[in-house]
Automatic annotation (TrEMBL):
It is an enzyme of class 1 (oxidoreductase). Residues 1-57 form the 4Fe-4S Mo/W bis-MGD-type domain. Its cofactor is Mo-bis(molybdopterin guanine dinucleotide). Belongs to the prokaryotic molybdopterin-containing oxidoreductase family. SMART domains: Molybdop_Fe4S4. Its EC number is 1.7.99.4. Gene3D superfamilies: 2.40.40.20, 3.40.50.740, ADC-like domains, Dimethylsulfoxide Reductase, domain 2, Formate dehydrogenase/DMSO reductase. This is Nitrate reductase.
């Protein structure tokens, strides 16, 4: 039998699945062919969800740490003991002594019931801010009033050029590829701007590889050329925007030759970009998350917004500066799920979690982790482990023994998406929502999280906190939906929410002025320059650490969710090296190298990259081993806007520790390696 269900992974694509269970019990997942984005295909991460469901390594019973051992215990014991820890904390220091750390490991609507539990206690300490995309969200809020994206069909049908700027669509947003192809078949040009090599660049008319973190300069220098050449949309600047004059006069600070030196992008390429935005119409810009993971990440997104807006690509079919899809929030009543009203919450920032924990007064006594693996994913993870060590009781809810679970006192097994009913409502890009249905029963003793928190509330003598059932909660959260839409969602497995396919076409923006704001009063209020501005003095430099380490999202798996992938779990990560790194350090493909900075060091296998910025090292985030996670390398610095981790402002050096060996010599190679390391 086929069951329509949904992919809950935090991703641009938010796919709809069709699941089939074979007689052998094997679950086959495929894409729902009717879904206009999924179009019948899913990625390796999606398929892995079935493997994860049935994996031998899955946690199937509540576990309690005793010394160095994990002892299986009953749910009754787990709930009783954890309730006791909660009670003690409430008595000793109050509800701020309880931390709920969560992230978006699942995009299920009902997952927010976790928060309901803590708010029901009167409040808690809670993680806020973003390891992901907040600087860019805030930048677009200053400029447009909200971060909206055009429908992909609009790009496919109307764009004359597509600029994929800092987004690795071939890895992280694969369902975009057919739309790009469709536009290219019509004759649209494709330009890729990326610090690292990308598969998509092979299909592109042009690839530009700036020095990491410098794209804002590139955009503003290109805009200066457009200003000087008169390649501007004067009607837009006059009728639909404010502050152009302020920005226009600020552009003189970006000298073309200097920008070329800082960005490592030749002057001809900066001109190429200016001409593309200035003379082609319309240009669709697809922005990635990577570019705003820097100290000036927010300004960088504002700079690109300004380039595209001034040259006439905002509010027109086939245009847009597409970073995120934030138009869908109004369709959901999250308060109906979280019941937050009246709760007293102390905020701790995800990007600076370790420091916030160490400084907390009152201190955290009980920490709950849901939908996340912070020890692998939060910057400065060495310090985080240290901070967690001081917490009396740590409870991790997950399906696997993650790097965070390894540091816990209790690990509680939750259900996998294929065992759950939920509305999957998080999309970073399009405007579809999907419905998850149970395909198979929960394995072992795994329980849905809402049930875990219901049991805990009962153990605390507070069952009213989690009163309700799945159907009621869903109906309450979707009460703004038109009659019949929920039934359609359940029947088809997905529905489209009605938002404009071309954003800002009516010229009305959600900014204070109601116009596009080249000069933003909100930015000034928040302590920033009114106009997009990049300061070269703020690029990180360290004579001892000449290269940038980019710990980007893995091609084949979702960040730290690699438990079922032997090739991802090896003892050594792959370090992809730009040509400059390889040449300066005398490294060849396959050599063993040590990647290090002041905080961490790891032995990796080198893969030399012919394309990309020459002085960049890339490792895929989520790997851990050799006593470290890759976030042992990163620092907890913030980007300029919002609350955003500047994870890619990370410098490193690389040295060769052993030569490459051919397959036959591998065994003795290991000895050679052991001797040299
Ligand atoms: N396969 C896979 N897909 C995923 C995920 C995953 O883990 N695996 N994760 C999902 C999530 S949570 C997110 S947030 C998204 C992230 O999706 P992306 O935005 O695509 O990915 P990032 O890893 O944040 O950024 C990596 C890209 O940014 C580029 N980049 C980095 N710094 C710079 C710079 O300074 N300038 C320019 N021009 N480019 C730069 C890199 O070259 C790389 O192409 O992907 C989602 N999709
Ligand atoms: N250095 C560096 N660090 C990064 C990034 C980077 O590019 N570089 N990217 C950042 C980004 S964009 C993001 S979004 C964050 C993400 O950070 P996380 O969300 O912590 O990342 P994941 O590794 O996907 O871990 C999710 C965990 O949730 C579990 N999980 C899945 N579904 C459920 C569920 O329903 N309930 C519960 N309880 N658990 C569930 C999974 O098994 C997994 O262990 O990481 C950030 N960290
Ligand atoms: Mo993310």
């Amino acid at each position: 039998m086929k069951v329509k269900t949904a992919c809950p992974i935090d991703c641009y694509d938010a796919c709809a699945f069709v699941a089939e269970v074979g007689e052998d019990g094997e679950i086959r997942l495929s894409g729902n062919p009717e879904h206009p984005i999924t179009r019948g295909t899913i990625c390796n991460r999606g398929r892995q969800l079935a493997v994860r469901r049935n994996s031998r390594d899955r946690v199937l019973q509540p576990l309690k740490r005793e010394g160095d051992e994990w002892i299986p215990i009953s749910w009754e014991q787990a709930m009783r003991e954890i309730a006791q820890e909660v009670r003690r904390t409430l008595e000793e220091v109050g509800h701020h002594g309880i931390l709920h750390y969560y992230d978006w490991g699942s995009g299920g609507l009902l997952k927010s019931l976790n928060q309901r539990f803590f708010y029901g206690l009167g409040g808690c300490s809670e993680a806020i801010g973003s390891l992901c995309w907040d600087a860019g969200i805030r930048a677009q809020t200053y400029d447009f009033g909200q971060a909206n994206s055009h429908a992909p069909e609009d790009m496919a049908q109307h764009a004359e050029a597509i600029v994929v700027w800092g987004r690795n669509v071939a890895n992280t947003n694969v369902h975009m590829i057919p739309f790009i192809r469709e536009a290219q078949t019509r004759g649209a040009k494709l330009v890729v701007i990326s610090a690292l090599p990308q598969d998509l660049a092979r299909r592109a008319d042009k690839a530009i590889y700036p020095r990491p973190g410098t794209d804002g300069l590139l955009a503003l220098a290109a805009l200066r050329i457009c200003r000087d050449e008169g390649w501007l949309d004067h009607a837009f600047l006059r009728d639909r925007a404010v502050g152009w004059e302020d920005l226009a006069s600020d552009l003189d600070r970006y000298d073309l030759d200097e920008v070329a030196r800082w960005t490592d992008v030749p002057v001809e390429d900066i001109r190429f970009l200016a001409e593309l935005y200035g003379k082609t119409r319309p240009v669709c810009t697809l922005l990635g998350i990577g570019m705003q993971r820097y100290a000036q990440g927010g300004q960088t997104i504002r700079a690109i917004d300004a380039l595209a807006a001034a040259t006439g690509h905002v509010g027109v079919p086939g245009g847009g500066v597409n970073y995120a899809q934030r138009q869908l929030g109004r369709f959901y009543d999250e308060e109906a799920i979280t019941n937050r009203r009246g709760a007293n919450v102390r905020e701790m920032l995800r990007p600076t979690l370790a420091a916030d924990l160490l400084a907390a007064d009152p201190p955290i006594q009980v920490m709950f982790v849901t939908r996340s693996n912070p020890v692998a994913q939060v910057p400065d993870s060495g310090r985080l482990r240290e901070a967690m060590d001081r917490i009396r009781c740590k409870v991790v809810i997950d399906t696997f023994m993650t790097a965070t679970a390894e540091c816990a006192d209790y690990v509680l097994p939750c259900t996998n998406v294929l065992e759950e009913e939920d509305v999957v409502y998080t999309t970073m890009w399009h405007d579809y929502v999907s419905y998850a249905r149970p395909v198979v029963p929960p394995r072992g003793e795994a329980r849905p999280e809402w049930q875990i928190f219901r049991d805990l509330a009962a153990a605390l003598g507070r069952p009213e906190i989690m009163e309700g059932d799945v159907d009621t909660w869903i109906r309450q959260a979707l009460r703004r939906w038109p009659e019949g839409k929920l039934e359609e969602l359940r029947e088809r497995g997905f529905v489209r929410l009605e938002v404009p396919s071309v954003s800002w076409q009516d010229g009305r923006f959600l900014t204070p002025s109601g116009k596009f704001e080249f000069a933003s009063s909100l930015a000034v209020r928040d302590g920033h320059s009114a106009v997009a501005r990049i300061e070269v003095g703020r690029f990180p430099e360290d004579a001892d650490l000449p290269y940038t380490l980019l710990t980007v999202h893995p091609r084949k798996w979702q960040m730290s969710q690699r438990d079922t992938l032997p090739e991802a779990k090896g003892p050594h990560p792959i370090a992809e090296l730009g040509l400059g790194v390889a040449a300066e350090r005398g490294i060849q493909d396959g050599d063993w190298v040590r990647v290090r900075n002041k905080k961490a060091s790891v032995i990796a296998r080198a893969r030399v990259q012919a394309e990309g910025h020459p002085r960049v090292v890339r490792m895929e985030i989520g790997w851990h081993g050799q006593g470290v996670t890759l976030n042992d390398f990163t620092s907890d610095g913030l980007a300029d806007f919002g609350i955003q981790a500047a994870l890619y402002d990370c410098l490193c050096d690389v040295e060769k520790v052993a030569f490459a060996l051919d397959e036959n010599a591998r065994a003795s190679g290991k000895e050679a390696l052991a001797r040299q390391v």
